[in-house]
């Protein structure tokens, strides 16, 4: 209500209050899954929030990453079992990263994925000054596996665990690697254990090139859910390297992202190619990653690195 001024002049009408912003609704891709309010995980899972995101830039590279709890875990009161970690190595201007997906059959895989990422990241940062362009990934993988063994030993009150006991508690996939600046274009080195994946996205045409074999793409004869995770370290270790151009970005993700992405030529691929043309705000990447599509209800994690020449934040 507008009251008259003391001098008798007519009051200036107040501008109407701005409407409350519309809350972000999950992005529907094709036929969406059911909508419901997430249920809280177990009371002792407070270290594993529903959603995490991060983002920053070095002089040569821009990074965004996010991890979200899947609909299945939200409904059944289970914690998010994915983890993502990244760090800048200041002496070289490089980025080290790790992405992990705790195996659902392991009773405490949410701890396994976080500890595997931490251990891999610590080891890569330690080895980077002497790596001379070739990271010792077997060393990194064994370091992560040893961390899981130590965690199991602590859980068993000091008893030396068997390999099956480690896997039964903390089994997890792992993709770990580095992006090193170079005058000819950033050099990516990456390894993986399990079925998480990595891709190069061509920003000019929206095409995805997988850096490892996929279980859902055209190169897969059969779709398999079998995975051999940490603490097992395969020999030889699955690894590769690639040089990025100014019009490419590196994507690293768990199968919660990889499965709906497929070959990248469908609706999910088009959505992310469009939205990742330039680095989005970190919360927007998390919102994007939380898209709704029926039958795809797993946790999802995605890490993206762009060469600085294309890094123009929105």
What does this structure look like?
There is one protein chain. This protein is α+β, with helices and mostly antiparallel strands and 314 residues long. The chain has one domain (51-310): 4-Layer Sandwich (Phosphatase 2c, domain 1), CATH 3.60.40. It is 25% helix and 24% strand. It is built from 7 helices and 11 strands. The strands form 2 sheets. Strands 1-2-11-10-7-8 form a 6-stranded antiparallel β-sheet. It is globular, with a radius of gyration of 22 Å. The two termini are 40 Å apart.
Describe the structure concisely.
The protein is globular.
Notable features of this structure?
6-stranded antiparallel sheet, disordered N terminus, 5-stranded antiparallel sheet, 24% strand, globular, disordered C terminus, alpha+beta, 314 residues
Uncertain segments = 1-5, 219-224, 310-314
Helix segment tally: 7
Helix percent band: 25-40%
What's the number of domains?
A: 1
Order of adjacent strands in the largest pleated sheet: 1-2-11-10-7-8
Mean pLDDT: 90
CATH hierarchy class name: Alpha Beta
Shape: globular
CATH architecture annotation: 4-Layer Sandwich
Secondary-structure blueprint:
Layout: E1 51-57, E2 61-68, H1 71-75, E3 82-89, E4 94-101, H2 109-131, H3 137-155, H4 163-170, E5 174-180, E6 187-193, E7 197-202, E8 207-210, E9 238-243, E10 248-253, H5 255-261, H6 267-275, H7 282-289, E11 300-307
Antiparallel strand pairs: 1-2, 2-11, 3-4, 4-5, 5-6, 6-9, 7-8, 7-10, 10-11
């Amino acid at each position: 209500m507008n009251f008259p001024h003391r001098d008798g002049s007519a009051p200036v009408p107040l501008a109407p209050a701005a409407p409350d912003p519309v809350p972000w609704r999950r992005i529907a891709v094709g036929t969406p899954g059911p909508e419901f309010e997430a249920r809280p995980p177990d009371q002792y899972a407070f270290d594993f929030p529903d959603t995490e995101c991060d983002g920053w830039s070095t002089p040569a590279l821009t990074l965004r990453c996010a991890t979200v709890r899947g609909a299945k875990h939200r409904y059944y009161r289970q914690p998010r079992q994915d983890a993502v970690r990244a760090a800048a190595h200041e002496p070289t201007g490089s980025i080290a990263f790790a992405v992990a997906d705790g195996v659902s059959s392991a009773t405490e895989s949410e701890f396994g994925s976080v500890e595997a990422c931490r251990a891999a990241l610590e080891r890569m940062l330690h080895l980077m000054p002497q790596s001379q362009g070739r990271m010792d990934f077997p060393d990194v993988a064994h370091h992560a596996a040893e961390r899981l063994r130590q965690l199991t030993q602590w859980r068993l009150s000091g008893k030396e665990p068997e390999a099956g006991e480690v896997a039964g508690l903390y089994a997890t996939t792992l993709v770990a690697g580095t992006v090193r600046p170079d005058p000819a274009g950033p050099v990516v080195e990456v390894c993986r254990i399990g079925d998480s994946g990595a891709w190069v996205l061509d920003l000019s045409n929206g095409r995805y090139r997988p850096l490892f074999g996929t279980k859902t793409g055209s190169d897969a004869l059969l779709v398999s859910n079998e995975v051999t995770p940490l603490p097992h370290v395969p020999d030889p270790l699955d690894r590769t390297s690639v040089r990025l151009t100014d019009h490419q970005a590196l994507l690293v993700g768990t199968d919660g992202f990889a499965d709906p992405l497929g070959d990248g030529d469908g609706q999910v691929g088009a959505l992310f190619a469009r939205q990742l043309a330039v680095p989005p705000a970190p919360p927007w990447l998390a919102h994007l990653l939380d898209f709704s599509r029926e039958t795809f209800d797993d946790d999802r994690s995605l890490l993206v690195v762009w060469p600085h020449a294309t890094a123009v934040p929105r």
